[in-house]
Amino acid sequence: MQSSSRKIYRILGEAVRVKRKKARLSQEQLAEKADLTRNYIGDIERAEKKITLETLAKIAKALKCRVRELTWKI
How far apart are CA 25 and CA 33, in angstroms? Predict the structure, then answer.
């Protein structure tokens, strides 16, 4: 990943982590709600994986928030 895109995924991963913790969900619980794996949630939070808009929408729905709440700092 290039540094500018890496920064975007790092900001996004942090936003997912903050929202998840505010919702008092473990990575495993969020993964189950979003129909993803716990490892994938961890990879997203650590900015180790690229995330599609479809996956971002699943995560936002599982967190009961809007996508823009996860992307507003980008």
Answer: 10
1: which 2 tokens?
A: 């990943």
As given in the structure block, the two tokens for residue 35 are 């129909």
C-alpha to C-alpha distance for 33 and 53, rounded to whole angstroms: 17
Q: Give me the domains of the chain, ranges plus CATH numbers.
A: 3-69 (1.10.260.40)
Question: Tens-digit pLDDT profile for the chain (74 aa)?
Answer: 568 889 999 999 999 999 999 999 999 999 999 999 999 999 999 999 999 999 999 999 999 999 999 999 88
DSSP H helices in the chain: 3-22, 27-34, 38-45, 53-62, 67-71
For residue 19, give both structure tokens: 């929202």
pTM of the model: 0.92
